[in-house]
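Deliverable D5.2: sample structural annotation.
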Amino acid sequence: MRNCTCTVPEIVDYGLSPLPWVRRFEHYIPRGGEVLDIACGGGRHSAYMLLKGHQVLGVDAMTDDIAPLVGTPGFTLEKRDLEADPWPYEPNRFSAIVVSYYLHREHFPHYFESLKPGGLFIMETFTEENTRRSGRPRSPDHFLYLGELARLMPEGAQMLAYDETDTEVGTAVARIVWRKPL
């Protein structure tokens, strides 16, 4: 682990551990920039990125679960409804964007634009197969169809990894990592 001058409460305080997919690709995130954790929930990825030495901006419409992280050096929290409001982040700002179990298709061009050149996009979320198995999520707005995540990748992005699979706990997901070219 890189040296981190911050003190982060134990990740277990924020619910689940970071996704293996996120842990697998974190070391590819360019240093010296900021990570945007979209729909950050309880903060599992925000806390992990802080522990790895990144500056983090967590954003969610509901922020009560992540409130204990507020005040941690390197962490900023924004309470925002990204689906109701215009995209608020400027171009070329973030070294990485992490999205887990959240889907708003209209954001994909914004994700690309808001990444710095060389920035990384890491995402994992439910597929239609998961809905067939468990009934969740119910709305097609909240799950991906076969091959859809790869099709949502913005033009010009460089795919590093793509997978549609079952997780260790049996959830059917699609996941992707792509980079904005230098």
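Annotation notes: The two ends are 26 Å apart (CA to CA). The beta strands are 34-38, 55-60, 75-79, 94-100, 115-126, 158-166, 172-179.
The annotation will be released with the project's public dataset once the embargo ends.
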